[in-house]
Specification:
The complex is a heterodimer of chains A (about 270) and B (about 700). Helix content of chain A is about 40%, strand content about 15%. Chain A has 12 helices and 9 strands. A 5-stranded parallel beta sheet of chain A has the order 2-5-8-1-9, sandwiched between helices. By secondary structure, chain B is α/β, with parallel strands linked by helices. Chain B contains 26 helices and 19 strands. The chains are: A alpha/beta (about 270), B alpha/beta (about 700). The structure holds adenosine-5'-triphosphate (ATP) and magnesium ion (MG). Magnesium ion binds next to α2 of chain A.
């Protein structure tokens, strides 16, 4: 079982750094107030997880994150009986725990989970706001403050993993994209301590790789990759080397593409 | 100081006097040589004497071509070019010797077999990707002996053999591609408004002078160099390391310094050109990567593109407004929507913001891309182009609808009728298209085996990756029997038992082949435009695909489509779902041939109907195409695209997942609108098509 929920579900003490791309904060708050679950769409590494952390801090709720994978079963989410000291004891899964304590539950990459798993969130995600726990017979009513958010990367992926209409139509969707150039530069500066000029060159490089998307490249360099590159540079790695290892080689193995991406890199740095 | 035209003319006349006449002068040669550096002039004059010592006529031919040769090669190579011509003259006489001097291209190409030469052919793909990375607009790379750009393509020489080492020659090619891209990116051909005078006209208003174009180009090229240096410091550093790049005199340097300021535009270049012409400043040396300029071609292409962009912009705006209206997300609901796009070009990268009636709205990516593209042609987009209610009335798509082409007769083939969507009427045209299901005449029988032999490594790779898909074993938990014990289940059963509940018998893990339940239909474009290697690649792609799909066990069907007008849409059955992959199917693949046009909507509707009879968990319809929908009777442009889009929506509503694989590099301009942002793949090289089709399928269903 690999569930990466924070064990103590504690509150964030300091503000997680987040630069808003548009009106996503207002939207999220409005949805939260109205008990509407939220679907975050967007390419990898564009700040979805960071946004959730920021919102949890803003709304002063604990955040429970579950990274979904194709082996994730319903009981991994809801909970199971375990034997504790010779006694059987019901242990809540991360979802049930969030529902009970009124936390924000974030199911990352929901399409990776098995289809039958997705169904357990249906009664939670409409106006019933309940989680039926089959095993104990309990019909868990969600706490007033509970909030469900899921993420989904509609990028180049298997059609077999499309999000079902009956699932997606329960959510409001907030679309994320890579931030505008200035904003992204600011993020890289803030996250790595790099100077503005180098940071803006990194962003330029990322934009170039994003231009290549679709013609052989599935995704361009994400903000996350830029942050990695920036950190390498700050640790004294040569800029060109950092770009090659943290951006070019991280993006693709295909020699032709790699040559083109490196060619762009040499022109820039 | 380089010699002036008059000085040169006198010198040349003296040397070449015996072969000159009133109709045969050296004035043109003198003019072109006057634009060369002093060093180059000395070189030419010295060699002129040597050649004349052999033959005066050959000397005349030499001097008429040497300026061109020096602009294409460094002096070392120019020397080889003369010596080569002299050798040929010695062996074969005057005529072949003269030819060797005239055919500079041939010499460069031939000398291109030298190790240090760089051939465009080998670098083309890399440079294509490189340019794509640099800019939003898709620039094609083509070859031409005088490198230039027409704003749609970048024309590069077939061989670069300027330096005596390969690395430097590669760099020149890359710098040249970048430079020509830079002319587009940094506004050489940019106009203030669509009606503002173009560059050609503005130049014609400057004082006349034989050097006008060369002076203008040299100044503008330096401005572009500076822009590129700011944008790509890495390239600048590499170019600075090149040796033997000519320097400028003080007058030129002053002009270049001013033009290198970030605020300088084409207007400044024109001002300096006027000044230089007035003061009769002689030309300076151009750098090996500057290429040349073809203003006429560029303005022609840019004009055409703007017309197209204007209608597409109107459409995108209308779509945006419709979407916002549907979402009710606009506060004011005035019917008159006034769009405003504010550009913040204070900052280095232009930030665009969109507001409607003063309310700021998020700009959809396609709209942003379109505007960014247009802003390479225009400094400002006219307000009326942004006005949502100013839908340009286009002529209807089917102006020639009553074209009476006889359907091919006799026709015993099955016939079907389909509606077609008319986006302007916003209604279907009933029973508009007639579709015939046709047979394919079998092709030669060895084709499939030959293809497999040709691609045997690829076939092996594909088989392996498809096997992984197939064998991707799924472990099912909580099974009543299986290969292993499910610990989670046992623990749970134990707790149940202790709590006095019934213990389940579902305690096992069972590993099972994944239950892929996929039916896929391939729809192959057989339009006339696929003639040649595209259809060859399609044939091969189908062979590889069948091999791979047989491994996988997915159900599949393949159809070709083409036609001529709505009265004769044709569907060619290559393999039905019910057929097994056998010899006659192989012969049908071998037998596919390019036909007429591409009416996509009707084909999609027909295949959707066929697919609807198939029961599978996932159903895919994959189109292989080489361009936009297009038919003889006006089924093109928006009309064709909108009908195809509608047909795809119909398919999606039936639970079919459409996807498109295209070799049209412009595909990303219109495919997102038809298929959705992620449901297409552009294969940028036909040669890769055979392999890519299977790989895309693999990705799509993994
Ligand atoms: N708007 C933003 N504000 C602050 N930091 C950001 C922002 N966007 C991206 N980042 C940086 O990028 C990194 C990656 O973002 P994050 O992990 O949130 O991506 P994600 O969208 O969750 O990706 P995935 O889909 O792969 O999980 C963050 O750790 C942070 O450093
Ligand atoms: Mg994340």
């Amino acid at each position: 079982m690999s569930i990466s929920a924070k064990k103590d579900d504690s509150l964030f003490e300091s503000e997680p750094y987040y630069e808003a791309q548009g009106d996503e904060i207002t939207l999220f708050e409005a949805a939260y107030k109205n008990h509407i679950p939220i679907l975050l769409k967007g390419p990898t590494g564009c700040g979805k997880t960071r946004f959730m952390e920021h919102m949890a801090w803003r709304l002063k709720r604990p955040l429970v994150t579950v990274s979904c994978h194709d082996d994730l079963t319903a009981s991994d989410l809801v909970g199971r009986y375990l034997i504790v000291g010779g006694e059987t004891q019901w242990i809540d899964g991360p979802l049930a725990r969030a529902v009970r304590q009124g936390a924000i539950c974030y199911l990352d990459e929901i399409v990776e989970a098995r289809k039958d798993t997705t169904v357990v969130i249906h009664p939670l995600a409409d106006d019933r706001r309940v989680l039926p726990i089959e095993k104990t017979g309990e019909l868990l009513k969600a706490d007033e403050h509970f909030c469900l958010a899921i993420s989904y990367n509609p990028g180049y992926q298997s059609v077999l993993k499309d999000l079902k209409q009956s699932t997606r139509q329960r959510f409001i969707a907030i679309e994320f994209n890579y931030p505008t150039t200035n904003l992204e530069t600011q993020i890289v500066v803030q996250e790595t301590g790099l100077d503005r000029d180098t940071a803006s060159m990194l962003v330029k490089y990322a934009v170039m790789t994003r231009n290549l998307k679709g013609n052989g490249l599935d995704e361009g360099a994400s903000t996350r990759l830029l942050v990695h590159t920036g950190k390498l540079i700050m640790s004294g790695i040569d800029t060109r080397v950092a770009c090659r290892t943290a951006i070019a080689d991280a993006l693709t193995d295909e020699p032709d593409l790699l040559a083109a991406i490196n060619e762009l890199g040499t022109a820039l740095f | 100081m380089p010699l002036t035209t008059a000085e040169l003319e006198r010198l040349l006349e003296r040397v070449l006097d015996p072969v000159l006449s009133s109709r045969r002068t050296v004035s043109e040669s003198a003019t072109s040589l006057s634009q060369c550096t002093e060093k180059s002039q000395q070189f030419a004059l010295q060699w002129l004497k040597i050649v004349c010592a052999t033959n005066a006529e050959l000397g005349y031919r030499f001097i008429t071509n040497v300026a061109a040769a020096m602009s294409r090669m460094d002096l070392q190579l120019v020397e080889q070019w003369v010596v080569n011509a002299l050798d040929i003259y010695d062996q074969s006489g005057l005529y072949p010797g003269t030819a060797a001097l005239i055919e500079i291209d041939t010499f460069i190409k031939h000398s291109g077999t030298h190790r240090q030469a760089v051939k465009l052919k080998q670098e083309r793909e890399l440079l294509g990707r490189y340019l794509q990375g640099l800019s939003g607009r898709n620039m094609q790379i083509r070859s031409s002996s005088h490198p230039h750009t027409d704003t749609e393509s970048v024309y590069l020489p077939e061989v670069i053999n300027y330096f005596s080492d390969r690395k430097s020659n590669r760099l020149v090619l890359k710098a040249m591609a970048t430079h020509l891209w830079g002319m587009n990116r940094f506004g050489t051909f940019k106009r203030a408004t669509p009606d503002a005078p173009g560059l050609e006209q503005r130049l014609s208003e400057l004082p006349d002078n034989a050097n006008k174009m060369s002076i203008f180009h040299a100044l503008e090229a330096e401005r572009i160099n500076a822009c590129i240096s700011r944008e790509l410091p890495g390239l600048k550093r590499e170019l600075n390391d090149l040796s033997g790049i000519p320097k400028h005199d003080a007058t030129w340097q002053t002009a270049i310094d001013v033009l290198s300021l970030p605020t300088s535009t084409i207007d400044d270049t024109l001002k300096w050109t006027r000044l230089f012409l007035k003061r009769r400043i002689p030309l300076t040396n151009s750098k090996p990567w500057h290429g040349s300029i073809d203003i006429h071609a560029a303005e022609q292409a840019s004009k055409q593109r703007l017309d197209k962009d204007k209608t597409e912009l109107a459409k995108l705006i209308e779509e945006l407004i419709q979407k916002l209206d549907a979402e009710n997300s606009l506060i004011s609901d005035e019917t008159d929507k006034e769009l405003q796009i504010s550009l913040d070009n204070q900052s280095e990268d232009e930030q665009m913001e969109l507001s409607i009636n003063g309310e700021q709205v998020q700009m959809p990516p396609e709209l942003r891309k379109k505007l960014e593209g247009m802003l390479q042609d225009l400094a400002q987009i006219p307000d009326e182009w942004l006005n949502a209610n100013n839908n340009s009335e286009e002529s209807p798509g089917n102006e020639s609808e009553d074209l009476d082409l006889p359907a091919e007769l006799p026709n015993s083939d099955p016939v079907f009728y389909y509606d077609e969507w008319d986006y302007q009427r916003k209604h279907y045209r009933k029973h508009w298209c007639t579709l015939y299901e046709r047979q394919i005449a079998p092709g030669k029988s060895g084709f499939v085996d030959e293809t497999i032999a040709k691609y045997h490594t690829v076939v092996g790779d594909l088989r392996r990756s498809f096997e992984i898909l197939r064998d991707d074993p799924k472990t099912h938990k909580r099974q009543p029997f299986g290969d292993d014990i499910d610990l989670d289940a046992v623990v749970e059963a134990n707790t149940d038992m202790r709590r006095g509940e019934e213990m389940t018998d579902r305690l096992f893990l069972k590993t099972q082949r994944s239950d892929r339940d996929i039916a896929v239909m391939f729809m192959v474009d057989l339009s006339g435009s696929t003639k040649g290697w595209i259809v060859d690649a399609e044939r091969e792609a189908l062979v590889l695909l069948c091999e791979a799909l047989e491994v996988l066990g997915d159900r599949y069907a393949i159809y070709g489509f083409s036609g001529m007008t709505r009265k004769r849409c044709e569907l060619f059955t290559i393999k039905q779902f019910s057929e097994t992959y056998n010899e006659s199917i192989k012969q049908r693949i071998a037998g596919i041939k390019p036909r007429d046009y591409t009416r996509m909507g009707v084909t999609i509707r027909h295949l959707t109907a066929l697919m609807d009879t198939i029961d599978a968990r996932s159903r895919l319809l994959i189109t292989l195409s080489d361009g936009k929908p297009d038919d003889y009777d006006g089924y093109r442009g928006d009309y064709g695209i909108e009908d195809t889009r509608k047909a795809l929506i119909e398919a999606r509503n039936k639970g079919i997942h459409p996807f498109c694989i295209t070799i049209d590099r412009q595909g990303s301009d219109y495919l997102p609108h038809m298929y959705g942002a992620v449901n297409y793949a552009v294969v940028d090289d036909v040669r890769k098509l055979p392999k890519e089709v299977s790989e895309v399928y693999c990705q799509l269903t993994r």
